[in-house]
UniProtKB/TrEMBL annotation:
Protein name per Swiss-Prot or TrEMBL: phosphoglycerate mutase (2,3-diphosphoglycerate-dependent)
UniProt keyword Membrane, yes or no: no
Highest taxon of source: Bacteria
Family membership noted in the UniProt record: Belongs to the phosphoglycerate mutase family. BPG-dependent PGAM subfamily.
Pfam families from the UniProt entry: His_Phos_1
EC number: 5.4.2.11
The keyword Protein transport belongs to this UniProt entry's keyword annotation: no
Keywords for the protein's UniProt record, in alphabetical order: Glycolysis, Isomerase
Residues in the signal sequence: none
Major enzyme class: isomerase
Length: 225
């Protein structure tokens, strides 16, 4: 809901919109129709993550528990939480211009540098604001713990629900090629990771095929009902 309102949503939280709930359901249907079996499920501890994973798993034959982990949260934006995106990015732009001695050319814009500027703008606020490196560190700690726990249980497929910047930060730290992720991670997109003997392999990034297949399947079922 906050995304729809154009407001910053990191550690702030809001429920999914009707469209968002549909996307989560489509994801579950797409995974089920592809024969994907889920052996364990984890999600960040916010409302939107809980709704997403519950709706997706509702379309799958999964009867296990859902473990919530705050380390899978989106990045914290400090004093900009709940503010308009225009306000935050305007402030960041001003901070970058000040550091650069003038406007930053579009082809010189660096997202990580911009996020570091956001953290500087939070200095003295008493609120938590994170760099991409800090987000990657906590997310990787969570993913490593999840993978080790599942490996000790015989392995299998684990569904983990997080948020866009957190996903990008984590897989970037794993060495993923993000050249094609120019507009961020799509809602319901699947990024497939493989874990073996302490090493991660990024198999796919930002794959919306399961959502698209699930949407088509649900539409076809509705048309024949």
């Amino acid at each position: 809901m906050l995304n729809l309102l154009g407001r910053v949503q990191g550690w702030s939280d809001a429920p999914l919109t009707e469209k968002g709930r549909a996307v989560a359901s489509h994801l579950g249907t797409g995974l089920a129709d592809a024969g994907v079996r889920i052996d364990a499920a984890y999600a960040a501890d916010m409302l939107r993550h809980g709704e997403t994973i519950s709706l997706a798993l509702g379309e799958l034959p999964y009867a296990g528990e859902i473990v919530r982990d705050e380390r899978l949260r989106e990045m914290a934006f400090g004093r900009f939480e709940g503010a308009s995106n225009t306000e935050m990015w305007g402030a960041i732009s001003g901070e970058l211009e000040k550091a650069n001695g003038g406007p930053v050319a579009e082809d010189e814009f660096d997202f990580d540098v911009a996020l570091a500027a956001m953290v500087r703008l939070n200095e003295g606020s008493g609120l938590v604001a994170e760099t991409a490196a800090q987000v990657a560190e906590r997310a990787l700690a969570a993913l490593n713990a999840i993978a080790e726990a599942q490996a000790a249980n015989g392995g299998g497929n684990v569904l983990v629900v997080s948020s866009g910047i957190t996903i990008v930060s984590a897989i970037s730290a794993m060495g993923a090629n993000l050249d094609r992720v120019t507009t961020g991670i799509g809602n319901g997109a699947v990024t497939e990771l493989r874990y073996s003997a302490g090493d991660w392999t990024v198999v796919t990034v930002n794959d919306l095929s399961f959502v698209e297949a699930g949407q088509a399947a649900q539409a076809a079922e509705a048309a024949t009902a």
